[in-house]
Structures
1.
Amino acid sequence: MSEIDFKPKLKQKTKVQRPKLYKVMLLNDDYTPREFVVLILKAEFRLDESQAEVVMMTAHQKGICVVSVYPRDVAETKATRAIDAAVQLGYPLQFTVEPE
Ligand code: TYC
């Protein structure tokens, strides 16, 4: 009788890695119109009107505000697109991306 042991000797561990998340931060400045900031927050970051108002006013009063969190490439693409849209109109609006 053959006694072949088919049991695997090593257990396989399935590792599911969640993507690290990055915050997109909105920085205040003295020149960009409030309405434009709200517009960008709605168009690029999909905030609704009241969320966009709160984020814009928080940055306006405190100097900085978290807009949202995303995987790194999404955060960087959105921040770059938002800055580019501001540059087109000559506004110095800035967004930064940092690990959560
Ligand atoms: N401080 C700007 C103004 O008074 C408005 C503004 C708000 C600009 C938030 C940038 O992230 C910002 N026109």
Note: Helices lie at 34-45, 49-62, 72-88.
2.
Amino acid sequence: TGIEAQVASIVDGMKGMEGPLLPILHEVQEEFGYVPHEALPVIARGLNLSRAEVYGVVSFYHDYRKEPAGRHVLKVCQAESCQSMGSDDVAARLRQALGIDFHQTTPDGRVTLEPVYCLGLCACSPAAMLDGEVIGRIDADRIDEIVAEVRA
Ligand code: FES
């Protein structure tokens, strides 16, 4: 398939690196927005790894998506500073409002919710990132705005 050919060319270009697996997975996700299932055997073959090893790494690192993301990607910081400022509540409210858990996408494909571990915005905890833009000091009003925005 086209996916397999594209992945094969990424693997060919990068397999000479030291520790190529993570950079290759990163590149594949950049290319497709997720790591397609068909990519795994191609990567395994190219790097002389078992398919299970590659799959294990993809599963271990939550940064790799196994399915395409929604139209919006909302990342909620769950690292220490944000935790101390109530990021658990923020995440709980968002999960409830959107009806999905972390690492899930709404059935209408509008939004994917993901945890992230520090956005470098600790001074403005709790923080999140919507489609690459950081949002600080999230309170209940801001959550409503975010939900309205991703649903629009
Ligand atoms: Fe959340 Fe740093 S801990 S931005």
Note: Residues 22 and 61 are 9 Å apart (CA to CA).
